[in-house]
């Protein structure tokens, strides 16, 4: 896979000079689609570019999002080589017709990289909605950011083919905003100690798997045990600290 070859080339670059091989390496790019989840109507095209300086450029252009609302977005998975994938409807354990964040964790893994608009990109910023893209009045998102190598978690570029992008937040009852009337309170946010967040704000709205040229890896389901919410990364979240929780609450309250 291209990214893996690229990583191998990077490894070669640190060999002693006597063993060095030519390292002129063009940047590598993968483009893939994000498809709607939970009948959100949101779709997007994502382009990931591994630059030759080790940085990662992420571009996501999409439409059909809840307008004027923040949409938390992440690269999910881990650097351990385990296969993760976009959640299927069968993960709707409570049968409410919606794949909730906590229901999908086993399939789509934890937050590996938070695709914020500025500042921290770690899992701690998973729900930093003040730094997540906001869909415009027409429900469009046009996100572009280059994340320096020093901010990328270990194993991310090397395991890119096992990863995927998830965007969150949808307007289930069609009233133009995230509100408690549609699905009630976010079970997930509540599990982190934050009350009053609409489930609409945290449920996944779109997901796309990195599909390298040469075919989609089907990724047989892992036999790993269930991951705890804490491992989900959201555990440490922007919610780390009362300030973050308050900010989230305030921001979400504006949406109600
Ligand atoms: Cu996510």
Explain how this protein is built.
With 256 residues, the chain is an alpha+beta fold. The chain has a single domain, classed as Sandwich (Immunoglobulin-like). 18% of the residues lie in helices and 20% in strands. It is built from six helices and eight strands; from the N terminus they run H-E-E-E-E-H-E-E-E-H-H-H-E-H. Strands 5-4-7-8-1-2-3-6 form an eight-stranded antiparallel β-sheet. Strand 1 and strand 2 form a beta hairpin. It is globular and about 50 Å long. Copper (II) ion binds next to strand 4 and strand 7.
What's the gist of this structure?
This protein is of the alpha+beta class.
Work out the strand percent. 15-25%
Q: What is the arithmetic mean of pLDDT?
A: 78
CATH superfamily: Superoxide dismutase, copper/zinc binding domain
Low-confidence segments, given as residue ranges, are 1-24, 213-256
CATH level 1 name: Mainly Beta
Shape call? globular
* Overall tally of domains: 1
Count the DSSP helices: 6
How far apart the termini lie comes to 44 Å
Number of E-type strands: 8
Largest sheet, spatial ordering of strands: 5-4-7-8-1-2-3-6
Which ligands, by name, code or SMILES, are bound?
Answer: copper (II) ion
Kindly name the structural category: alpha+beta
Query: CATH topology, which one?
Result: Immunoglobulin-like
Main beta sheet strand tally, sense and closure: 8 strands, antiparallel
Order of helices and strands: HEEEEHEEEHHHEH
The radius of gyration over CA amounts to 18 Å
Give helix % range.
10-25%
Just name the CATH architecture: Sandwich
């Amino acid at each position: 896979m291209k990214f893996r070859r690229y990583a191998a080339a990077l490894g070669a670059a640190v060999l002693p000079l006597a063993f060095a091989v030519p390292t002129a390496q063009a940047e590598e790019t993968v483009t893939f689609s994000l498809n709607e989840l939970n009948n959100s109507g949101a779709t997007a095209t994502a382009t990931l570019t591994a630059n030759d300086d080790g940085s990662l450029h992420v571009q996501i252009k999409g439409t059909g999002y809840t307008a004027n609302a923040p949409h938390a977005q992440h690269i999910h998975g881990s650097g351990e080589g385990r296969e993760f994938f976009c959640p299927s409807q069968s993960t709707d354990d409570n049968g409410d017709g919606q794949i909730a964040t906590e229901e999908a964790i086993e399939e789509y893994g934890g937050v590996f990289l938070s695709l914020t608009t500025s500042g921290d990109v770690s899992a701690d910023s998973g729900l930093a909605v003040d730094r997540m893209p906001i869909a415009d009045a027409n429900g469009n998102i046009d996100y572009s950011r280059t994340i320096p190598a020093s901010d990328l978690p270990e194993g991310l570029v090397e395991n890119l083919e096992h990863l995927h992008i998830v965007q969150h937040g949808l307007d289930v009852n069609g009233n133009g905003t995230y509100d408690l009337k549609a699905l009630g309170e976010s079970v997930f946010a509540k599990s982190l100690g934050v009350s009053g967040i609409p489930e609409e704000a945290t449920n996944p709205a779109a997901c796309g798997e990195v599909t390298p040229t040469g075919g989609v890896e089907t990724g047989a389901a892992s036999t790993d045990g269930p991951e705890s919410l804490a491992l989900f990364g959201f555990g440490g979240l922007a919610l780390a600290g009362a300030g973050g929780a308050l900010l989230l609450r305030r921001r979400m309250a504006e949406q109600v």
